[in-house]
Each structure stands twice: as C-alpha cells, then as structure tokens.
Amino acid sequence: MIIHDVICPFCGCLCDDLELETEGGKIIKVQNGCALAESTFMTDTRLPAPIRRTETGWEEISYNEAIKETAEILQGADRPLLYGWSSTHGEAQSVGVHIAELIGAVIDNTSTVCHGPSILAIQEVGHPGCTLGQVKNRADVIIYWGCNPIEAHPRHMSRYTTYATGFFVPDAQRERTVIVVDTRRTDTAGIADEFVQIEHGGDYAVLSALRAIVRGKASVIPAKVAGVSKEQLIRIAEICKRAKFGAIFFGLGLTMSRGKYKNIRNAIELTDELNRHTKFVISPLRGHGNVYGSNEVFTWMTGYPFAVDFARGIAFYNPGETTAVDILRRGECDAALIVASDPGANFPRAAAAHLAKIPTVVIDPHMNATTALARIHIPCTAAGIDAAGTAYRMDGVPIRLKKVIDRGYPDDAEILKKIYDRLNGGKGP
Amino acid sequence: MKCILNTGRTVPQGASVEHKGADVYRTIASSCFLNPVDMMILGIEDGDRVRVTTSAGQIVLTARPAEGVARAEIFVAIGPYANHIISSETHGTGMPDFKSQRVDVEPTEELLKSVGELMEDIGGLRYDHT
Prior knowledge:
The complex is a heterodimer. By secondary structure, chain A is of the alpha/beta class. Chain A has 18 helices and 21 strands. Chain A has helices at 35-42, 63-76, 90-103, 116-125, 132-138, 149-152, 156-159, 172-175, 187-190, 203-214, 230-242, 252-255, 261-274, 291-302, 324-329, 343-346, 349-357, 412-423; strands at 2-6, 18-23, 26-31, 51-53, 58-60, 80-84, 106-109, 141-145, 177-182, 194-197, 224-225, 228-229, 245-250, 279-284, 308-309, 316-317, 335-339, 360-363, 376-378, 389-392, 398-401. Chain B is of the alpha/beta class. Chain B is 23% helix and 30% strand. Chain B is built from five helices and six strands. A six-stranded mixed beta barrel of chain B has the order 1-5-2-4-3-6. In chain B, strand 3 (49-54) and strand 4 (57-65) form a beta hairpin. Chain B is globular. The interface between A and B is large, with 76 and 58 residues.
C-alpha cells in the first residue's frame, strides 16, 4: 500500500510530502525523504517489552507492573524531574505537564540543551519571524549562521531556501543569495555565495560589527573582527540592505558558544536594524521533530516554555536553576522520568551520572544510552510512525502526525495517563 | 595540543541515533575530526587514536582528518563520547559549553570504549539490544 503526504517526525522541518510503501504491517520504501527520514522509518528497532533492572541484570516485566512501579517511584520522590518530551506528540506532552503539576515536579524539555538560550533572547527582545512558506516564496537573501542544515536539516534548503522555487523567486538558484557564517567550513559553507569564517567565540563581535555598519558607523570597525575582514563585513551588510526580503536562520553555533543567549539577542537586534532598510526575519533551526511543540504545550499550560518547577505549587521558571542539567549537576532530584529523549547520551557526564544514582524511568520507543542508567524502560509507540498526534514545525505551524502502521505498542500518552491516574487516586487529568 | 572542542549534528549521527548499541553508532560518535596540519604536528594518521582530556575527564577517540575544521579546534558529533568530557557548568543559562570546551589532545594506544561501557563507568548497566 502507498501512503501519501506522510510527515517525517525526525527533525524540526517536519517534511510533509513523504510517500511510504507498506507491506504486511512493515514499511518497505520511503520516497521524497532524506537519509534521516529513511532511517527513521526503515530501521525502527524497538524494545520488545518493558524491562526492569535487578541486582543481577535485567528482567522483562508487564506494562501494568512497570506503570505501577513508575507511579510509586514518582509518588515517593521529594523532587522528581520529568525531562525530554521533544520526540513525541503534544498529547503526551500535555499529560506530562499535568503529572508535574500534580506531584510538584520540575518539568523540562530538550530545548534546555538546544534553543533554550534562543527563547531567553526572544523573551528579552522579541521574535521578528515568519513561516517557512513566506521564506520560500519571498526571501532573496538567506543567512545560515552557526548551523549546518545539510547535516542537521537535510531538506531545509531544497524545500524552503537555496533550491526551492518560490512565487516571487522563480529561479531560486540564481535569485537567492546564500550567506553562511560558521567557525567550520562545513558542507553548507561549500554551497554558499559568501562564506564568513569567524574565529571561535567571535559571533557576538561580528554581529555587533554588522549592526554598526548597517547603522552607517563603518568607520569605527577595525580592519578585522574575530578573523573576518572589514571589507567582507561591509559587503555582507550591503547584500542584506539591498535584499527585498532577507531571512536569517541560526543554530546551536550561536546558542551553545560563548555569550549563549546574548549572541541571539544581538542577532535579533541586527535583524531589527536591517528592518530600517528592508524586510528581514530571523528564526532558529529547531532540532527535534516536536521540540517547538514542547515549548508551545508547556507555555499554554504553565506560562513558561521549558524548565518549569512546580515545587511551590505554582509554576516557577528560572533557567540556570530549574533547568535539567543544573538540577542533575547539583544532585538535587531524587527520581526522574525521561520521555522521548536520551539525556544519557546528550547531557554532560556529571549530569547523566546522577540518573544512575536515583530511580530513573525511561518511556521511549527505542533503547538508548539512558536505558543503561535507568531502573525501568517502558517501550511505546513512536509519534508519526505508529501513533498519530500533533507536532509543531520549527516555524510554529502545527502539523498532524500520521499513524502509518500498527506495531502493537501502547501510545506514550496512554502510558502517562495511567501513571497520572494512579498518582491521582484513579481520577484522570 | 591545546584545542577547543566543537560538537554538532551530522547525517550519519542522526541516521544511527536510535541504534546507540550498534557498532556503526560507536564509530560515528567516537570520531574526532582534526585539521590535517594539527594531525601532522601530533604525528598521527587517519584512524589513529587520541586521548582528549578536559577538566571534566578524558576519553579515547578515533582521529579523522577534516579540512573544514580550523587549526586548534576538534569536532566530535553530539553524543555520549563528546559529553563524557564536557563540563556540566551552565553559567546560569541551563546550557553547558557544548561548543567551547577547552581540551588537550594527545596520541594514545588505548582502546575505544563502547557506549555501554561509558554508561557503566557512571553507574549504569548496559542492556544488549540493537
């Protein structure tokens, strides 16, 4: 059977034009997808059943037993941490927030180690953004700053920018100017019209220099800024000012390097400056398929996009204090529920190590590095493969993920609802 | 050799990310990309192993040449190998220095560890399933 218009749940592009061929309950062919999509749909290996760590090894247990023990662990904890949420649908995320509120937990999502700093900057100075459809149809200047879409979002350039035919940009390859700013000469840099190679940690200075030039203060700029020549900076500023519609996309090269959220603030303020000359927008390239959705769901339910602490009975938000890495580094939480993510692989060692010291439960379709640190791992459906649900694309557009096959696993939202029911004496959220 | 550790996503890392117990994931996540000139100075060839040390710990990785990596920088795909040596300090932002960890790189004959071994080093117990 051929299934049309399938959404790939892997990265924040949520490409919605895939064609899948299924046979006998298995996906046998993926068309239109990138290498990441193909691996997501074709090489899906799940844990066969929930597992529990014993003194001598691992044992398989029933779903009922796993759910009961998870509820007991969370009920008995003074400061539980509920972390992850970005690779599942909004339906599961919302039950997670209900559990956090009920038991006074800290709930955080993977943007804490991704675009959390971008959110902090947006909270300071706002977000002049737009949907990817606007970029595709209008943008004639594209800037990729501190990101490498060829590797991390392989179809971003063909669907929305460099190679995408737009309504007002019919000959994309000739009419769009692509500028790449990075410390590394990446594959994306290789296809740029202008590659700006900056010294490590120099983003803030280069952004400030561009702001000054756009303001007409080029005379104050030295001959080189963080390894970039003044001539190139002036050339870039002129390209941007001459644009009919410019779009800046940025990645973790800005959020994770020195300056963190101040880099993003400076990039947004450069966008503001450019809007005195022409139309310019800026947006983060979001990583996980539904990480934007976790920010949306958390925000509409608690008022805050990540790192929400319910210990006081009300929602409290203080990144640096209530963020998952900090709570684990301080050895503060005494139980953890990890859903649809892998902090064992993606957190610094000292933070991940605390997960092995406390009762940790993982709810995830696949075995991952955190499995080894957990007491219980409960396998579930994978959103967009064998579960339907809502996810948000990187530009904030909600898209309904399809269920394309049935593999007989319970939905993580259902597992979480059962945990909630047990914690709440049988009453649902 | 003093360097800065930069981490990031790659297509092979993303394609194998749900198979962390597999050999292919180990090969990808434990590859350390260096500028070829830095490799010459260190006296190492493609495929040789390096020990990368930080204030947070040390890890053995496989050296790979990459013209695009700047001198005195190394690039490792995001994952348990890079994170083994990244400090958990977030400077009050929630975000560790995933792209600006200072490291010391030296040749070594020591063997690579598997993801399971890295997790067992911090108190975990691997579950074999690929």
